[in-house]
Amino acid sequence: MAKKKEISLEKSDASLTKEDIIVKEKLTSLGKQLIKEIEAGQSPYFETVVRGRSNVLHGEEGYLYLGDKKEKRVFLNVAQAKKFMQTVAVAAKCKKFKEENLHTSIRGLFYQLKFTLGEDLDEELFEEQSESNELVEDLEVALNLKREDLNLSTDRKGVVAGNLVIRDKFGGEETEIDCTKQGRSGWMIPSDVDNGMEFIDVDVDYVLVIEKDALWQRLNEDKFWKKENCLIITPKGQASRGCRRLIRKLADMKLPIYCFMDCDAWGWYIYWTIKTGSMNLAYLGRNIATPEAKFIGVTMSDIERYDFLKKLTINAKEVDLKRAEELLSYPWISRHQDWVKELKIVLDTKKKIEQDALQGPRLTFVGEYVREKVENKQFLY
Amino acid sequence: MAKKKEISLEKSDASLTKEDIIVKEKLTSLGKQLIKEIEAGQSPYFETVVRGRSNVLHGEEGYLYLGDKKEKRVFLNVAQAKKFMQTVAVAAKCKKFKEENLHTSIRGLFYQLKFTLGEDLDEELFEEQSESNELVEDLEVALNLKREDLNLSTDRKGVVAGNLVIRDKFGGEETEIDCTKQGRSGWMIPSDVDNGMEFIDVDVDYVLVIEKDALWQRLNEDKFWKKENCLIITPKGQASRGCRRLIRKLADMKLPIYCFMDCDAWGWYIYWTIKTGSMNLAYLGRNIATPEAKFIGVTMSDIERYDFLKKLTINAKEVDLKRAEELLSYPWISRHQDWVKELKIVLDTKKKIEQDALQGPRLTFVGEYVREKVENKQFLY
Questions:
Q1: Whole domain around residue B93: which residue ranges?
Q2: How many CB pairs under 8 A join A and B?
Q3: Looking at residue B15, what is its pLDDT?
Q4: What Rg do the C-alpha atoms of chain B give, in angstroms?
């Protein structure tokens, strides 16, 4: 413990980026607008978009987004005054985080609010985190920003390997990460893949998204990404915000996105969430959806091509059958005959197949399967 | 898709390591012993240790381990014949994986068994994975090996940053990973931190284990590991096998291990699992436990030192109170007066504190808190 160093309590000296300044200005002008209203003797208000299911739409572009229904928070309204004040408090904290150039989670935000407001106002406004979460969503929508842009970090999950080089500016330092040199581990997908991140080299033919980490590890060991010149990504189950955003960005680079999932309720759900986005994040629209994504399997129809799979099916559970029926009821799914066929086989046979089953004949078959599917363009849309 | 390459189906050319050869020999001699018994006209058998709670002990050394109760699987016994055959099948598959120099998960093993046995024996021995899981544990105990040594990968979770350089030999390649150069992401802790992994440089004063990833991200942004010359590890909640094994290995290098957790049921559980191991992995004993670990907080007694924490406590839930009572009943906890005091405060006040609360006054306070605790050696044991 001899070589003790001082922890600097001052804000990071790394100067704010252009993007940071835009965010700060958006927050500042929100505040200025409120002051103007107060000075003009009006009740200040704050407008946001309704985020309930009734306002979620699915359009021709293939992703979920919010409709036009708006909601107003008015200060001089007994029912809304508290929420209004909270929203302003959240915005003020986020502006402070931007100025400090520091990040925290919404749990950290919650405690900052609890600390400050508890002291200044002698009232515990933020008993439960669910309240601050909702207010953050309000701000995201009203300012047309993601919470990551407001220096709020989110749960992160998932890893990447392949020919991708990233420049990561974070905590006042800059590092270059080469995703071909991450060994058995892979590069951990961060909360924010936009601010302070630059993809300085992406030289691959396609992106393979693999539901399960175990299968990712299998393909990583086979150096599949090197042999096939692709990126392999696993969201490790349901994709995090960061992972979904990463996939969107890779698709924006015109890279094909192929999803390799279980043929069951979870696998389909994870795929469709990546492709169309999800109900509760519909307010982020295309920023977090990748309608270009294609499903390479596993499918029940694979049994026609790979006879051995027949004996490696397992019994579908109630949740799988219910989900299959639900998916058939969505117009953006039922118009694809391949999907209808797939889901009907599950409902008829009451069987499902896991991607792990491809290891039955030999461990390396997983890679052979993916390669064949990609070569023959055997996808579901 | 022009630059297509052939996927090699042959086994990896990377030669087996000395450790791999020892494992293969253990598996081979198990097989030879069985053959010898059969040739001698005896019923072959297989011995393992009882893994139920009745055989789990906690000794002076401070970790959970198995007692002496043994169990025999005899082939010529109607009730045991099936299980016996399965155990041999699992051992044979693991030997094959070692020879191929390839890894899979126990789900992959399950499907390999289902594929092979279904064909050769026309009988579905492995309907459910729970069966193959139990058999893998049998083998681990009988051969005195971890499943990771048998080329079986496990769920992985958790990240590391700090002055640690690793040489990772995997999939026939070798990479060097510098945990000071992983940016916002950190180095993802793999399933296996033993085989093919070498810690070529570890130059830190201590190891800080942080329950929540959000707090890890906070300290990583502050470059806490650089300023304090420590490693920061987050298990992201309950520690994976790989993470627990990594902590054990770092403690073997005489590095102090400090655990920074929530003051609640989960935080205590995660700490005690790292320290003493857990009931269901008691068969791995000291290999996966770190009795040297110390608890730096958050504690209820912190309120005496940091007044602001009083207003950032939250209500304890039923599970927290129940857990506190349970912990007080363990002799290896109740003999530490500091722990008794802590748990009693929770039971009396029905309050708890999360580590996130330390961000209340300012985001950088988290690091100040940890530094002060470490400097003043304010630990619970």
A1: 18-153
A2: 221
A3: 65
A4: 24
